[in-house]
Amino acid sequence: MSRGDATNPLLALARRAATMAAPEHDVRRAMVDWFACVIAGAPHPPASTMAGALAGERGAGRAVCYVDGQQGGLRHAALLNAVAAHVVEFDDIHRDSGHHPGSVTIAAALAAAQQHGADLATLHRAITAGYEVACRIGMAVTPSHYRNWHTTGTVGTMGAATAVAVVLGCGAEKIAHAIALATTMTGGLQQAFRGEGMSKPLHPGHAAEAGALAAMSAAAGMTGALDVLHGPVGFAAATSDSTGRWTKPDGPALISAITFKNHGCCGHIFPALDGLVSLRAAHGFAPQDITAIHIGGYGPTKEVCDRPDARTEQECRFSIQYCVAALLVLGGVRLAAFAPDRLADPAIRAIMPRVTVSLDPALAQAYPSQRAANLSVSLRDGTVLSHHQPTRRGDPDLPLSEAELSAKFLELTVPVLGGTAAEARLRSLWHSGALPD
After folding, report:
1. DSSP structural state of residue 255
2. CATH code, domain with 301
3. Among residues 187, 259, 354, 389, which one has the fewest Cβ atoms lying within 10 Å of its Cβ?
4. Nearest CA to 369 among 229, 259, 239, 236?
5. Residue 59: which CATH number?
6. How many helices (H) and strands (E) does the chain have?
7. What residues form DSSP beta bridges with 71?
8. How many degrees, rounded to 5, is the angle at CA 247 between CA 160 and CA 156?
9. 3-state DSSP call for residue 292?
10. How far is it, in rounded angstroms, from Cα 361 to Cα 337?
């Protein structure tokens, strides 16, 4: 490889991706979570909308599109499955990079493995490598990158390229070129989910397809600019406030430090929801007892999720006011919280004006490695309850158990597949030695 000095982060990432072993159990956890999200999201727009629009573009192939159950080409399946994985906002997160790695990486890696007849061990290595590259690039540009860019749509492209390149049998040199080519095809703007519209799930879909294209091109001999990550007008300089904070890619695989969502909404809302659950368990108040709730949070808690008049399903998934009120009225923020009748529920709407949000400087300073919230709940009898929530349920330091992940899987998939089929799919994901079909 040219430009092969020790200071080139892209080459270091490619070498690590080429030699990584897969922590099998952690990869299986990620795949259980991914399939839950894909199956739940598949029947709904924009996944169903795009599947219809692109039906004539399917092409020949063995990659399974779980949105319509049909086989087709690698890029077609990667695109639609990644879209479906992001629809219900339950897909996994890497906390320190702010990236949803599963929706993109697994979609691309699995489609490539099915298309090329790879075995399960190769798929696991590909997923591990894709998570590693995307999350490490995300960490290098976070948090300034997230001011304008949707990290999943940007670094996800590099993760997908890495994963597909591993499936295609590429060594470090071609993986490096796959990453370089993918970097020029990144996209995904914050504005896309600050208001209405369906474009947010298209970000992981495009990332999966573009990453697959980059890997296929690199495998065939196409080359990219190997200084594209850290160069003076490269990815980090163009999308963040620096040329990147690159660290040596070593230590445990990052797929072993993934957050699995415990609520069906934006992850920046989670600390407030978890804190409210703790306060209610300790003090037993009811929704009608509350006069005010104030949440102090880190940057995106205020900038992205302070939406006091959210109306649409997408807006409500990103509204701390709506989600807090839904938790109090419904007992949880699950799929049912975003059903059409719930979006206009008078009981939820009555609580929303009582919820306010502010930026807490100390919590903002600790972000992104800590996602915390400070809550103050005022009751009608004059009592004021305070709570500091230091992390989120599902984060690596407060993880979901295998039983909880399995329960989440069944909650999301039984309404689509039925109980028998959902149980069979779950058993296979935990225990089978064969490639998923």
Report:
1. G
2. 3.30.1330.120
3. 187
4. 259
5. 1.10.4100.10
6. 19, 6
7. 64
8. 15
9. strand
10. 31
Residue whose C-alpha is closest to residue 359's, from 307, 303, 311, 318: 303
The H-assigned helical ranges of 168-201 are 172-183
Neighbours of 249 (CB within 10 A): 17
Based on the structure, what is the number of domains in the chain?
Answer: 2
Beta-bridged to residue 373, according to DSSP, are 389
Residue given tokens 């490639």 in the structure block = 435
Residues in the chain: 437
> Coil, strand or helix: which one is 393?
coil
Q: List the domain range (segments joined by +) for residue 279.
A: 267-389
Return the SS3 of 250: coil
User: And the tokens for 318?
Assistant: 């990103």
113 and 179 inside one domain: yes
Tell me whether residue 424 is in a domain.
no
Question: What does the pLDDT profile of the chain (437 residues) look like in tens digits?
Answer: 545 566 899 999 999 999 999 999 999 999 999 999 999 999 999 999 999 999 999 999 999 999 999 999 999 999 999 999 999 999 999 999 999 999 999 999 999 999 999 999 999 999 999 999 999 999 999 999 999 999 999 999 999 999 999 999 999 999 999 999 999 999 999 999 887 889 999 999 999 999 999 999 999 999 999 999 999 999 999 999 999 999 999 999 999 999 999 999 999 999 999 999 999 999 999 999 999 999 999 999 999 999 999 999 989 999 999 999 999 999 999 999 999 999 999 999 999 999 999 999 999 999 998 999 999 999 999 999 999 999 999 999 999 999 999 999 999 999 999 999 999 999 999 999 999 99
Burial class of 390 by CB neighbour count within 10 A (0 to 12, 13 to 18, 19+): middle
Q: Give the predicted TM-score (pTM) of the model.
A: 0.94
CA distance 293 to 389: 14
The residues, any chain, with a CB within 8 Å of residue 166's CB and separated by 6 or more, are: 17, 18, 109, 122, 125, 126, 129, 130, 175
